[in-house]
């Protein structure tokens, strides 16, 4: 799932005014060694934090349907994760870096929600949209200064980019075939009951017992006489 989000971001960041510019989009950690190796303008999107959005966790089951809209599997609802990226521009001059960041902002601001049909692989299969928040209020525990210190580099202008995306829950369970016939109920006598003749087959048991009692009483009266 994460690599598919990377693929989506690469297309968004490198689109718009940057289409055909030859500027690369990198996801490597922007360390001192990495910065020393680059030899062309680059936009770096470093994934520095992955956390579940527990407020969006759901319970129960989700039906998986085929092309005929029949339920073929069931699975747990997907879990949502916040992927936080540190987006920076790397050129020879600060002015060019600022122009690059401006172009990236212009590409990302209109795309706050990406529909499922725009997403690749498993992301698109889930049929859910993902949310993109750029340069918003930072809610993670680590500050950007701490991140740069951990990378061993100098603080640079950056955009905090957060993508909230679903991750499919496993395993999936096969669903039973759909019901195509109505229910059929048959009523039979209790185990050990003598077989009923045709004329008595549909007579309720309590009425049959009463009739037999009456016949038994009549036979007793005749014998007394």
UniProtKB/TrEMBL annotation:
Basic and acidic residues bias: start-end ranges: 197-225
Pfam families per record: Pvc16_N
Domain Pvc16 N-terminal: 4-181
InterPro entries recorded: Pvc16_N (IPR025351)
Region entry Disordered, spans: 186-225
Record's protein name: Pvc16 N-terminal domain-containing protein
Originating organism: Streptomyces griseoruber
Biological classification of the source: Bacteria, Bacillati, Actinomycetota, Actinomycetes, Kitasatosporales
